Amino acid sequence: MLLEIDNVHVSYGKIKAIKGISLKVGSGEIVTLVGANGAGKTTLLKTISGILQPASGNINYQGKPLSDIKPFERVSEGICQAPEGRGIFPGMTVLENLEMGKFSRIAAKSENEQDLNMVFDLFPRLKERISQFGGTLSGGEQQMLAIGRALMSRPRLLLLDEPSMGLAPKFIAQIFEIIQEIKKQEVTILLVEQNAAKALSIADRAYVLETGLITMEGTGKELLNDPKVRQAYLGHGA
Ligand SMILES: Nc1ncnc2c1ncn2[C@@H]1O[C@H](COP(=O)(O)OP(=O)(O)O)[C@@H](O)[C@H]1O
Ligand SMILES: [Mg+2]
Predict the structure, then answer these.
(1) Does residue 69 fall inside a structural domain?
(2) Fewest CB atoms within 10 A around its CB: which of 15, 97, 176, 233?
(3) Which residues surround ligand 2, an ion (CB under 5 A)?
(4) Rounded distance, CA 60 to CA 235, Å?
(5) Ligand 1 within 6 A of CB of 37
(6) Average pLDDT along the chain
(7) CATH number of the domain enclosing 13
(8) Which residues of 20-58 are buried (b: 16+ CB within 10 A; e: fewer)?
(9) Ligand 1 within 6 A of 200 CB?
(10) In what residue span(s) does the ABC transporter domain sit (predicted)?
(11) What's the number of domains the chain is made of?
(12) Does the structure show a pLDDT above 70 at 91?
């Protein structure tokens, strides 16, 4: 297992956002976490990337305690989060935004070019807009830029927080296709989504998160066909 989360609790002061979660992400998998607004999805991703500390419980990454890797070292160890709401630099160009994604400023020029080409192969639209300021991109393009920037760090574990949020249907379909392309490059993906139908359809395995607890798990297909999941997250009864 690439990532093993065991009975993790996370609080904001007195507010218990994660109340004992255990889940696993195997190398090369797409694992999806679905759940309503406020379920604790972002909190869990931030705990993995090191923005938040667990109050208790263990997380292992590549078989070792994640707590041994300092938050600022996690990107260079392959853990990279594309944050909710994109978080790109609006006053920087597309190229500058992508270059910010390299964890090492001293990466060889050839390596940098190789990574840029990989991103531009996935997102030809970004290549067309290489000199445009991030802030002037459409919502869908900003999301592409956020994912592209995360890929520049050559992640082993990519944490995607609601990549389809706020996007037009055309872009939503494209983002999910690209997530599948990224998987082919042997990047493991933990995907958080409210768009449960799309997310479950591309997931190898999935978990349902409800107010800080995991209430269901299974293959993407199992959860997609589950009456309770359909009722609660897919907007129609069984
Ligand atoms: N900075 C914060 N301070 C206090 N409570 C927070 C903070 N961030 C999130 N929460 C609370 O933690 C819970 C989980 O939030 P979050 O992880 O953002 O949910 P999700 O991403 O699933 O919508 C919610 O009840 C939310 O109000
Ligand atoms: Mg969230």
Answers:
(1) yes
(2) 15
(3) 41-42, 84
(4) 35
(5) yes
(6) 92
(7) 3.40.50.300
(8) ebebbbeeebbbbbbbeeebbbbbbbbbbbbebebeebe
(9) no
(10) 3-236
(11) 1
(12) yes
How confident is the model over 179-199, as pLDDT tens digits?
999 999 899 999 999 889 999
pLDDT per residue over 197-233, tens digit each? 999 999 999 999 999 999 999 999 999 999 999 988 8
Q: Which of 14, 15, 160, 165 to mutate to test the pocket of ligand 1 (most atoms within 8 A of CB)?
A: 15
Ligand 2 centroid from CA 104, angstroms: 28
Dump pLDDT digits (tens) for 137-155: 998 899 999 999 999 988 9
Please tell me what DSSP assigns to residue 69. S
Instruction: Assess if residue 140 is contained within a domain.
Output: no
Please check whether residue 9 is in contact with residue 55, taking contact to mean a CB–CB distance below 8 angstroms.
yes
Sheet hosting strand 30-34, strand order edge to edge: 79-82, 157-161, 188-193, 30-34, 205-210, 213-219
Q: Is the CB of 38 under 6 A from ligand 1?
A: yes
CA 42–ligand 2 middle distance (angstroms)? 4
- What confidence score (pLDDT) does residue 107 get? 64
Question: Does residue 227 fall inside a structural domain?
Answer: yes
**Cβ-proximal residues to 184 (8 Å cutoff; 6+ apart), any chain:** none
Q: Look up the domain containing 72 and give its range.
A: 3-88+155-233
Structural domain contains residue 116:
no
Per-residue CA distances from 157 to 30, 214, 216 (Å): 10, 21, 23
Q: Which residue has the higher pLDDT, 6 or 173?
A: 6
